[in-house]
Structure formats: C-alpha cells, structure tokens
Amino acid sequence: MQDILINWTPQETRVAVIENGAVQDLHIERTLERGLVGNIYAGKVVRVLPGMQSAFIDIGLERAAFLHAADVQLTGDNPRHNAAPGVVVTPPPIERLVFEGQTMTAQVIKDPIGTKGARLSTQISIAGRLLVFLPQDDHIGISQKIGSHEVREQLRTRMAVLAQVPEGSGPTGGFILRTNAEEATDAELADDIAYLRKTWKAVRERSFKSPPGTLLHQDLNLVERVLRDLAHEATQAIRIDSKLQYDALKAFGEAYTPTSVDKLALYKGERPIFDLFNIDEEIARALTRRVDLKSGGYLVIDQTEALTTVDVNTGGYVGARNFDDTIFKTNLEATQTIARQLRLRNLGGIIIVDFIDMTREEHQAAVLTEFKKQLARDRTKVTVSGFTQLGLVELTRKRTRESLAHMLCEPCPTCEGKGQVKTARSVCYDILREILREAKQFNPKEFRIIATPAVVEMLLDEESQHLAGLSDFIGKPISLRAENAGSPERYDIVLM
Q: What angle do CA 196, 202, 203 make, to 5 degrees?
C-alpha cells in the first residue's frame, strides 16, 4: 500500500511516496527551477550539424536546445510506425529535415543537465489523465503494462470509435492509452480526448502568432502531477500541508481525476508533515556516499559525469554459517536497497553495480533475478544486462531530469569538487618550490608567505629547518603571515 505526502511552500514543492513505511520515491520542484520536460516552445533553428546529425534550436533559454534527426517528426506516413517489428528505420539526414532560420514547434523531452542544453523533439505528445495525445500521428497505442492481448485489442477497438471525428474536420491525431486507462469508461476516455484536443488547438493557435522563444504550453506542476501520474489503486491517502494547494488540487481532481479526490486529505498536524516518516533524514542520507544495510554490510555510491558506480561490501556482517552464504545474503539484501536508492536519488544514465564476488552460478542467478524484480517497481525505464566477465552488473536508467544530488548540492568550494585537498605538508613543499622559482627571476628584499594557519604552523615547526635552509640558499629573508583563505591549498607569495 502507498501513501503520498506533499510538503508545499511558495518556493518549493516536495513529494514523498511511502510504501510499507519507507520512502521509495522523492520528487522536488522549485518555483525558480521548474523542470522543462513536456513544455512546448516556438523555436528557431540556429545551427545545423550534419556531422552529429543534429541541430541547435533557440527556444528562449540560456543555452540553445538540441534536436537529433531521430527526434524529427516525418511528414506523411511515418515509416517508424509502418516498419516490421525489430526493424530499425534510419531517419533522413538532418540537413534534409531542417535548415538554419527555420521556425518550428518543438517539445522538451530532456531537461538541461550540467553544461548540456535541453533535448527537443518535434514529435509532440500531450499527456492527459488516461491518454497521451499524439497530434501528428494517427495510430492508437496501448501501454505495455496493460494486461492480456485480448484486453489490449478491446481497448484499441473502443478508442478507434471514440477518437473518430466528422469528415472534413482535419487530422484526428493519435493516442496512447496509459496504464490507468484499463478500467476507464467510454465517457471518461471521451472527456480526456476532448480535453487533449482542446489543449492542442490552443497550442496551435498560439504557435501561429508567437515569435521564436515563446512558451506555448507548460506541463502540469508537481502537485497536479501527483494525481495524474503517481496516484493509483494502491494509494491509500494523499496528504498535503497547504490549505491553498489542497483546495486547488481538489478542484483539479474533481475535473480530471475524480477517483482520487476521496484520497485527498489536508494535513493539520503540529509537526511538519515530512517528520511523520523522517523524510528529511532520508534526504540527508541520500546525499551521502555510504548507505548502511541492516545486516551490517554497506553500499558506496559514487556519481560521476560519465556513470554511477555502486560498490557492495560485507562490512561487519558475519551472520551466515560460511563465507559464501554471507556474501550471497549481503548481495540479496543489497538488491532491494540499490533499487530504492536509484529511485530516491533519481540516478540515471549508465550504472555499474559491483556486487561482492560469488563463486556459485546459482547465487549469481538468484541475485540477478531478485535485482530485476526490485527494479521492476521503478516507474522510470530500466534496462539490465547480466553479469559481465568481471562480475559487474551493468544497467541503464532513463534520465530526464537532474539527480537529487545535482538539484540540492553544488561542488565544494574548498576542494572544487575533487573530494579531497592537499595536506598541509604538500602545500608547504609547493611554497618552497615556488619561492625558489621566484628567486631565480626576481630580486626582492624579502619574500612573504601568506597561507592558512595550519601551513604556517608547519613551516614554523616541522618544516622550519627546510625553510631556514632555503632562506640561506637564496640569500633573502622569508617571513610568514597566517590568514584563513578558505581553501587549505591556497597561498600567496608577496615580493617585498
């Protein structure tokens, strides 16, 4: 069973999904940093790059957005839909699809991450409560998570009738039925169809009269997406701590998700709502490298620019009868924690898991099966490869927004993101070398070292003999002054 807690303030919305008393998912949206995925813009092509089969599009953001040839909607019959299963259709060259100066309507499919601009697609899709509308297509798709083949075909037939429009009314558009549409009535589907077509009509009308860089359509905010995307049959309660947002969410739910309205509750407790499940403590733990397992083992999670690594260690766990069983049980326990941490931290891209080496193949198979089972609960697409020859498990998790660490943190100004700083002794030797270098080029009366108290103290104590020897060698006095410069590595040498 699932509970959803919503903590709202004017500057930030935080949503925690609780399952079996533990936080499984965390979503954060800041008013000034709201995600762009789903937004539709009027754009202008500023550069075409045939070598990369892509183009840069100005949509009014700080950095130009990125459009790949594979994300350009093809006119006429879409060969991607008509291709046989398993056949990959190569799109035409980007230079035949777009040209510099061209204006277009495009949708963000991936937020700007790091130094990369947003990724765009001209294949527009607008999500509703039950359906996803594809205004430039005419096919009807069904979510892979919807039951049997017979159920899927029945839904397809119903949708084909409901989505019809009178002749001469123009393109009908295509639809994809979302998972929660399986039990929907014809009236509910018809309402969603009408809402989505009305939304698209408004987008089209704005696109004809808006200059490039204009936002034509913005996706729902995080509070509204809770009802549209996160709530389902297993959701017991959706508690929110803002009366203003509770009223707005209730009105939105009555219009679009009436089955979820009864689950809404205004939280009036004296304690902050996130204190109910120690969620702030969970967030703090999700920003650390080490995650302890209940058995005594632990994980070490490192996020880099290229990939994320997860290292599993037995730690102090010695509970099993033999070493193989200890390793097996630690790895099994780790699968659940790793899957949860990927969701909690919103880690995406390439992920490498280094389970503790297992000598027995049946243990490897059992761990991989359990890992896939735990990952299946993830709403984000995850693809798992088996164990490599080095005993690593490779997986990819779709990345559409910044990770929790990138959203809440920034590189340490002291170490500049390296994660470590030079020792005081190393800085002392850097200073001595620098003075020797300067003495060969300049002839001051005195050299003055300005460094941190720890470095100055070491030069006066343990390294005093070397400092005196250098002063004798260059024939100049060397004085010291301690200052807190912020970084332990920073120093200045002043020529007096």
A: 90
The reported pTM is 0.73
CA dihedral over 297, 302, 307, 308, signed as positive or negative: positive
- Per DSSP, helices labelled H in 346-423 are 361-375, 404-408
What is the pLDDT averaged over residues 110-131?
89
All structural domains of the chain, each given as residue ranges with its CATH number in brackets, are 2-33+221-280 (3.30.420.60), 40-217 (2.40.50.140), 288-408 (3.40.630), 424-495 (3.40.1260.20)
Give the number of residues written for the chain.
496
What one-letter code names the amino acid at 145?
K
180: left (phi over 0), alpha (psi -120 to 50) or beta: alpha
> Counting Cβ atoms within 10 Å, is residue 141 exposed (0-12), middle (13-18) or buried (19+)?
middle
pLDDT, tens only, 235-245: 999 999 999 99
Backbone angles phi, psi at 389, to 5 degrees: -65, -25
Kindly write down the DSSP assignment for every residue of 92-134, as one continuous string.
PPHHHH--TT-EEEEEEEE--BTTB--EEESS--EE-SSEEEE
82 confidence band (pLDDT: 50, 70, 90): low
